[in-house]
Design goal:
This protein is α+β, with helices and mostly antiparallel strands and about 675 residues long. The protein has five domains: about 60 residues, Orthogonal Bundle (Helix Hairpins), CATH 1.10.287; about 240 residues, DNA ligase/mRNA capping enzyme (D-amino Acid Aminotransferase, Chain A, domain 1, 2-Layer Sandwich), CATH 3.30.470; about 80 residues, OB fold (Dihydrolipoamide Acetyltransferase, E2P) (Beta Barrel), CATH 2.40.50.140; about 150 residues, DNA polymerase, domain 1 (Orthogonal Bundle); about 70 residues, Rossmann fold (3-Layer(aba) Sandwich), CATH 3.40.50.10190. The chain contains 25 helices and 22 strands. The strands form six sheets. Strands 2-11-10-3-9 form a five-stranded mixed sheet, sandwiched between helices. α1 runs antiparallel to α2 and α17 crosses α18. The longest helix is centred in the N-terminal third of the chain and has 24 residues.
């Protein structure tokens, strides 16, 4: 049986109990795996529409064969597994999922179910954008944000308060007057523009790309470093509040949320269902103009009192339903798979398609991400496939149509050697991707590093784009960064496509880049995991490249926001003799590898001391303590190492940090002891 078909192989009514049991077992296994990838790994591998079809089929089978319904079925709980990376918190009221509707008829069926429960009543609805983000619950006491929890499995979630404090739109203190305790629920999301920028940055430093904005948001909220979370530009929309004294109309509650300082998801109504349907139809096309993703419209009974009367099932409220817009899909032929080699050597398989119109554009190619995705789809060549735009951005293959597969089709076998240089590929432990390790001589990797080197945020050498760099490489004029600085106008005269004055201009731009400061030069080298912000931190901590080369790995790791992974990468790069020789050549031609202006020495009671904070401190944020340390001359570290002077320990302190500090003999102090060292209160 084909688990990825939109419908079961034949009518459910014709299945025997034995066949139904086999199908149910297969569906539970598949759905549970997708739940794990989505909720725990934050790595979804199928679109929501495909997942929903599988769950709908499972539910239909269980209704037809109730004796086969199992307590571990995904239909019996909200779904998801809580990770162990953050403290686990039980929700005061379960965060239930919503039933879905895929047609207007299903919306009217939803209303008829409610009418059967209260035949003598009339009510109105509100309609809200269904933000394609990550659901969270926020708790406020006396107007202050005190705790933020992920949805988790609906019953309990992860306490990610420090990360949520960095999210735009989540007020740390409420405006106006408010109840003593409030719970607010909403969606954390990412603008498409921020998502695309994040993926560009990850590509530059050799990190795997996120699949879509929701995937990026989920991954960001699970980061241990709240500083990095803040850099991601996450945003928030509120859609629910629970507190004493709220109005009965949920539309009025949304207005109250705005007054308290929350951005509120776009809300329409109260209105009868026919008007809500008009709103849904109007947004079918308008949604593409939004700067963020929505995948539907949530329809809710407006009266909160009536909601209590209608109640809930064991998995969803009866008084709400999510209308899901169908993703636009197209059927076409998969004609070939090509393999692209990125700047970091990562091999990306690309589906070469028979051109097909999709979401207003002609699609000829689609991403396959990695070979695991090819295996999951069970791709053959040739093949008939279904494609859609993931998050309305990236065309992707979502499933195959095996019943239309040619008889001579053969399974896709991953390449064993680099398609560009022939080097045997490697697959690092714990990663799904294949890499070409020949980073110094593989043409697309060399050209990619050159392109990064001359980019605006690095050396900012204008007029040198990918096409020109490729020509220079092919002619043997440029193989290393330092080769650029030896170019003369006459070397470029014969290069195809150059305007008459272009050679002189390019050489001038190259020479002008010698004034680029040390942090940007460090970033331009293309060290894996070293982005702009990391390069700034490294240059600040090690004012010369010689000082950085002499630093031990744990010393680099102790710099605030750096950590072990980046430190290991920096150490490996600088320990490579060829890389250091290239740095020496770049220094010889005049590039900046030191901070030219003497750094202002820190002064104060904590001058010369490195400190790290672990745990929580009631009423005081981590950011306040860091600012306090730095304001009094101290340096804030990113992890526990032998170079740490003090570990400031609060409530629920991280056991790993405390244990490591004890082994290294690092002094552990309380916040009060820190204030005593400084001689001034934090507030």
């Amino acid at each position: 049986m084909d688990l990825f078909s939109a419908t079961p192989p034949r009518s459910i009514d014709t299945l025997t109990p034995e066949e139904a049991a086999q199908r149910i077992e297969a569906l539970i296994r598949e759905i549970t795996d997708y739940d794990y990838r989505y909720y725990v790994l934050a790595q979804p591998i199928i679109p929501d529409s495909e997942y929903d079809r599988l769950v709908a089929e499972l539910r239909a089978l269980e209704e037809r064969f109730p004796e086969l319904r199992r307590p571990d079925s995904p239909t019996q709980r909200v779904g998801g597994t809580v990770t162990k990376e953050f403290p686990v918190v039980v929700h005061r009221r379960p965060m239930l999922s919503l039933d879905n509707a895929y047609s207007i008829e299903e919306l009217y069926d939803f209303e008829q179910r409610l009418k059967r429960l209260l035949p003598d009543k009339d009510w109105l609805y509100i309609a809200q954008h269904k933000i394609d983000g990550v659901a969270v619950s926020l708790h406020y006491e006396k107007g202050l944000f005190v705790q933020g929890v992920t949805r988790g499995d609906g019953v309990q979630g992860d306490d990610i308060t420090p990360n949520l404090r960095t999210v735009r739109g989540i007020p740390l203190r409420l405006r106006g007057t408010f109840p003593a305790e409030i719970e607010v629920r909403g969606e954390v999301y990412m603008l498409r523009a921020d998502f695309e920028q994040l993926n560009r940055e990850r590509e530059e430093i050799g990190e795997p790309l996120f699949m879509n904005p929701r995937n990026a948001t989920a991954g960001s909220l699970k980061l241990q470093d709240s500083t990095e979370v803040a850099r991601r530009g996450l945003r928030f929309f509120a859609y629910f509040a629970e507190a004493k004294g709220l109005p009965d109309s949920d539309a009025q509650v949304m207005q109250q949320l705005r007054e308290w300082g929350f951005p509120v998801v776009e809300t329409f109504g109260p209105a009868p269902l026919p008007e809500v349907v008009q709103v849904i139809q109007a947004w079918a096309e308008r949604r593409h103009g939004l700067p963020y993703d929505i995948d539907g419209i949530v329809v809710k009974v407006d009266s909160r009192a009536l909601r209590e009367t209608f109640g809930t099932t064991n998995k969803a409220p009866r008084w709400a339903i999510a209308y899901k817009y169908p993703p636009e899909q197209a059927i076409t032929e998969l004609r070939a798979i090509t393999y692209q080699v990125g700047r970091t050597g990562f091999i990306t398989p690309v589906a070469e398609l028979k051109p097909v119109r999709l979401s207003g554009t002609i699609v000829k190619r689609a991403s396959l991400y990695n070979y695991d995705e090819i295996a999951r789809l069970n791709l053959h060549l040739p093949e008939v496939v279904v494609v859609e735009k993931s998050g309305e951005i990236i065309p992707k293959v979502v499933r195959v149509l095996p019943e239309r597969r040619p008889t001579d089709a053969k399974p896709v076998i991953p390449p064993t050697t680099c398609p560009e240089c022939g080097t045997p590929l490697v697959q690092p432990e714990g990663e799904v991707g294949y890499y070409c390790p020949n980073y110094k001589h593989c043409p697309p990797q060399v050209i990619g590093r050159l392109e990064h080197f001359v980019s605006r945020k690095a050396m900012n050498i204008q007029s040198l784009g990918e096409k020109i760099l490729k020509k220079l490489y092919q002619k043997g004029l440029v193989r290393r960064f330092s080769d650029l600085y030896r170019l003369k106008p006459e070397d470029l005269i014969g290069v195809e496509g150059f305007a008459e004055k272009m050679p002189v201009k390019i050489v001038q731009n190259i020479q002008a880049s010698k004034e680029v400061p040390y942090p940007r030069v460090l970033y331009a080298l293309g060290i894996r995991h070293v982005g702009e912000a990391v390069a700034e931190k490294l240059a600040e901590a090690f004012p010369t490249v010689e000082a950085l080369k002499a630093a031990a790995e744990d010393e680099i790791a102790s710099v605030y926001t750096i950590g072990e992974t980046i430190a290991r990468s920096v150490r490996a790069y600088l320990d490579d003799p060829e890389n250091w020789e290239e740095i020496e050549r770049l220094k010889a031609v005049g590039l900046q590898f030191s901070i030219q202006k003497a750094e202002k020495k820190r002064s104060g009671p904590l001058a010369g001391k490195r400190l790290l904070v672990t745990g929580t401190f009631p009423g005081i944020s981590r950011e306040e303590i860091i600012a306090y340390i730095e304001a009094h001359g101290g340096t804030y570290a990113s992890g526990v190492s032998k170079n740490l002077d003090y570990l400031v320990v609060g409530e629920e302190a991280g056991p790993t940090k405390v244990e490591k500090a004890q082994k290294l003999g690092i002094k552990q102090i309380s916040l009060a002891e820190l204030e005593a060292l400084v001689g001034a209160p934090i507030r």
